[in-house]
Amino acid sequence: MIRMSTIHDPRYTQLIKELINARSQRDITQIVLAQRLGQHQSYVAKIEGLERRLDIIELFDWLQGLDYEPQKFFQDIGWFPGDSRVTPLPLKEKGSIRNHNNGIFQQLVWEGQIKEVFLEGITKTQYSKVEEYVSNLFAELNISHPKLKNREAITQALEFAVNELPDLNPSDIYQHIIYRIYLREYKKSKPEQSWVRAGGEALELFIERRYSPVLESYGISIKALLSSKAKAEVLKEMGLAGKVGDSKLDLALYASYQGKKVVFGGVHSKASLAERVSDDVPCSEAMMRQGFTSFLYTFDSKSFPPPRGDLINRGEMGSNEHPSDKRRYIEEHGSFDACFSYNLRTIPSLESTLSGKRIFVCSLKPTEDVFPSKIVAAWQKYRNGLQIKT
């Protein structure tokens, strides 16, 4: 029999509090977590309510259900402060940026050491301008009553950086500049945990704002679904309520038809494909079976830190010859109508794939970004289907 005094040990209570916070940050309900663990909701509720104690094996299963690497979790809650996986952060001192042919070396501090990563297509002057703007924006979040929500500050920082650095790999902007500076500047709470939710919502807002102007000229709107209620309502419009997880769609695509606003598809947005893209697959496949368009939009942001990594942001798609599971979701299984990667190191699909679905590698330059044109084509296809039915 477990003594209640043991369950309420302050260290254990703090551990459960951190697990609850991690679940909330990832927008995972008790029901969803219980399903991933093969348990009933009451199991999760009792552990979070300190009525039942997690053993060590259950804790690791729990973290897996949250898609939270155990070593990183313990580092984030301060149990392993000297962990070598701590994220390298940009140096703030003058002279920390070195010019190089067609780019710069950004200097990062890691475990008291200086590491460098090459950012191609920008100058020291361009980087310094962006870093100053982004740093000031994020630093303002630390005051008692900031003017902006964290997600809004990240969105504005990303918009500014993308416009100022048109020749830099968009994924490098997101990872090496926006993400790392946020971790360096944000002090109000644990920055890594804050980023999980705020960073994801910021990407949704960025997509909505970047593409709305061009899509509006075609009578199309793209809407970020920032709340569980908004996501559930769109899935209900599609006839998918209760059939897929209510949190598994990030943006909705609408257009006007015969004086009415109709939904014709949606977008799943992922900064990194490590963010359990497999969880979006059932929703995406259900959407496509109902005739709706389902696109995947990603920065395919992934690099490995020291000591085993070189910090180069290569992404997670693998190659045509050696595809990763993430690539197979599109090219073999056809789980999305198309994937749009904004990491210029991602290898695009060959023109013909097993499923007929492809990965498109895009720049954010308007003349090189095929994403809006594919949305327009998707609406035309859906509208033709409506015309046949009527």
Order of helices and strands: HHHHHHEEEEHHHHEHEEHEHEEH
Distance between the termini: 67 Å
Helical run tally: 14
Uncertain runs with pLDDT below 50, 5 residues or more?
1-6
The percent range for strand residues is: 15-25%
Percentage of residues assigned to helices: 40-55%
Question: How would you describe this protein?
Answer:
This protein is an alpha/beta fold and 390 residues long. The chain has 3 domains: 4-76, Orthogonal Bundle (434 Repressor (Amino-terminal Domain)), CATH 1.10.260; 89-193, no CATH class; 213-389, no CATH class. The protein is 44% helix and 15% strand. The protein is built from 14 helices and 10 strands. The protein has helices at 4-7, 10-25, 30-37, 41-48, 56-65, 70-76, 124-139, 150-164, 170-185, 191-216, 228-237, 281-289, 325-331, 371-389, and strands at residues 89-90, 97-100, 103-110, 113-120, 220-224, 251-257, 260-270, 293-298, 338-341, 358-361. The protein has a 6-stranded mixed beta sheet with strand order 5-6-7-8-9-10, sandwiched between helices. Strands 1, 2, 3 and 4 form a 4-stranded antiparallel beta sheet that branches. It is globular. Residues 1-6 have low confidence and may be disordered.
Give me some keywords for this one.
390 residues; alpha/beta; 434 Repressor (Amino-terminal Domain); six-stranded mixed sheet; 15% strand
